[in-house]
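Progress narrative, work stream C.
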Amino acid sequence: MERLLLTMFLPAIQRRHTILFGFPHPSSANGQRAKQFEQNKHAMTETIKRWERRL
């Protein structure tokens, strides 16, 4: 799903829109959400820091 969104929104991303990829779905049915969050935490933090520098 993330790959599809990335493909669809690449022009928007290139125009400096903000989309945070890597954030797991919060549903309790997603038993891997804590693991996914920890795996992607650094990359998501860096993305948010880049957004902050652009403000």
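Work stream C, second folded protein:
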Amino acid sequence: MKAPGQVPSVDASAGNRSVQLSWRTPATGGAVNSYVVSAPGMSSKVVSSGRHSTTVDGLTNGVEYRFSVTARNRVGSGPEALANPVTPTGDVPGIPMAVQATANPSDGSVLVKWTPPLDQGPGITNYKVIASSANGDQSFDANLAKSLTLPKGTLTYGDAYAITVVAEGAATASPPSAPSQVTPYTVPDQPVVSAGAVTATSVTFTWPKPNENGKPLSGYTATVNGVAQQVTPDQTSLNVPNLAPGASASISLVARNEAGDSQPGAATGKASNPPPQISRVNESSGGYTQVAISFTVDWGAGAPGGTCAITLNGKKISSCTGGSATVPKASTNYDYKVVATSSTGLTANASGTVQSTVFTITNSCDNAEPGGDCGLGILQNVPQSDPDHGPPNKGKLGKGASASAECYGIGYQSQTGNQVDEHKSENGGKGRQSTYWIYIPNAGGGYVVGAYLEQSDDQLNNLPRC
């Protein structure tokens, strides 16, 4: 804590054997506990910190006085502030009567009216209106008028004022009139509204609490897209829900107190319009003859769902989670495409391939004839007669080699003879017999004989038929 600063100004007015003094609170330094009024050759007068004026009586008319006012607290005293020189006189105007101060809440002004004194004394040259509050005194000249309007903002809204009027003559002034109490107030300040957080279906408007201007807020009227609603005085935001993505919302916000409605504050916001996003596409096989995909669509925060179209191996599927399709071949890649369309027509695409379950065959020929290599010929078509007398091979599936099988056909019944050890004893020593011919993509695609494969006919029958 520190000592108070200097009192900003001290005004002195002469009376009959008295002097009226008024001053304001220091703008700097520590808090004031009291004021000391002094003049040369006189005892000091102590005035409490809540007052900002005093009358010094018992003076001699015709003698000039120069008073000073010092603010003090327990730490010490501030610098001395001198008043203007003043000379008491018996030629003092009378006291103004019937002073009435009235607050006008419509524009925030204060109207002060009074009746001139019956005793005009040496002649009145000016009426001084003094507004006294806990923060000090303010004085205003009215010249010779009988009323004075203190405009909006001149006095502090919500502060209690004692209004007095002094009649001033050429050399002296009357004592102050009886006070009239008034507390100025007016409508709240215009709210400052802005559009804050948005989602695809909502806009949130926010505002700081406006200045109440002397009377507490009783609430707001918010008109959103032409529809009015009441808002509590402690609220500083309003969410507007149920908008379409990309739709606008406008607000007109009026604050209200005892004086009436403020000027409206306005703002406009727009809901977001996010495009959909396709994520986490999972590709899976449902077997040798079925493929499937699943996926997730993010429509955006708060956005309503849209529609999805899936094309999978030429099949059209309407689903926003996934779908499956029957396919003609095992071990084969099939194209898919997903198109997600939002409620506002924005789209997202995802595409790729999904493979049916791989069926692996293995050439189990292990006992080649002299000069042979145990390679299985790859034929362009399923033979219906001994292929050894048909078209030449497109290529060969070598001894012990494996390939991905896609489908099977039924044709000429072949047998292994002594070419596969494990089947030599079958069919009276003729070996394994089979009418299955398996399509593989090797050598541009063609069929190999089923009898020489490691897989049995029962296993080969799991493949789709070509």
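The mean pLDDT is 91. No further action is required on this item.
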